[in-house]
């Protein structure tokens, strides 16, 4: 799977998926929990429960998943699956992410017309929407702990987080603009800090 | 929801090629390309009604799983519209769904797979490490911005403060506790259904 890496962080004793089927069912289970976005569930299941990866690795992978075209969680499942079992793992994780949720969505679409106008159903969806926003915010704060040992140090990291938040949420800059500019600055600064 | 259309083999190919063509443009999630899908499927081709388009997005967001599944529903509805009734409609619905999903996923997933393989093989390079570590604060800022924009859907804070309060409480619970996320979603659904938020 992975070549011996020079950094001796605890990669040896770390829990890992047993086989592609394990990947498939793990991703099925977490996709089926992911109402209003799968991200919070992925962090909870893969980092905290299964411990296949650390918070730091999760943030790094999430950055790549976000930059590549395509749905972010789908990209993430392909990356994690490939790392463990190559193409077979990537396909297993991807299939897990999509198969059963697809059937659920289809079933919902078939019964939607009868219940969509019911006020209790509309209210329940509104309440779940509010919770989903909280899940993402809480996950964001949790992942911020991964910045503790960042080469740029706490102040520069906080400034970058705040700038990105302000640009996207308050000033509504386009993502196609924020990612290259702020991301580019962050990468160049990091590149200089980690000089050998 | 009767909106009968007739799709020729060339139209099916066209549907597939359309999703192939926008796959690599979907940076930041498939939902970012929804306006263009509306232009193509509803306005230009007339394959879907406005109602079907909006319902597909709403259902996929309310359902578990990645939001990209709304594209499966778009393809399903195109197929249903052309399929007449009964098993024939289901068969063409399944065809529309398969063409749409494979089209939207194939290019972006292949690119991600190849790029991340390369990145993982070269992970000790200074440039690869700088990229992955350097993006971390920006990615966390993006997450917080996403949460902020989702809360913005609640509308006016003066009247919708219970929704904001619910979001805030959930943020703290997710951040500080290991409470199962499904409990939070269930509580949100219950509060909403009872009209409390």
Automatic annotation (TrEMBL), chain A:
Primary site of residence: membrane
Gene Ontology MF term list: chromate transmembrane transporter activity
Keywords from the named record: Cell membrane, Membrane, Transmembrane, Transmembrane helix
InterPro entries: CHR_Transporter, Chromate_transpt
Highest taxon of source: Bacteria
Localization per Swiss-Prot or TrEMBL: Cell membrane
Membrane topology summary: Multi-pass membrane protein
Stretches that traverse the bilayer: 23-42, 89-112, 124-145, 152-171, 177-195
GO cellular component: plasma membrane
A Pfam family that the UniProt record links to this protein: Chromate_transp
Keyword Membrane: yes
Recorded family membership: Belongs to the chromate ion transporter (CHR) (TC 2.A.51) family.
Protein name, as recorded: Chromate transporter
Organism: Acidovorax carolinensis
UniProtKB/TrEMBL annotation, chain B:
Domain of life: Bacteria
Sequence intervals crossing the membrane: 12-32, 88-114, 134-151, 163-196
GO cellular component entries: plasma membrane
Assigned protein family: Belongs to the chromate ion transporter (CHR) (TC 2.A.51) family.
Database matches in Pfam families: Chromate_transp
UniProt xrefs under PANTHER family: CHROMATE TRANSPORT PROTEIN-RELATED, CHROMATE TRANSPORTER
Record keywords: Cell membrane, Membrane, Transmembrane, Transmembrane helix
Cellular localisation: Cell membrane
Topological type in the membrane: Multi-pass membrane protein
Protein name (record): Chromate transporter
Gene Ontology MF, one: chromate transmembrane transporter activity
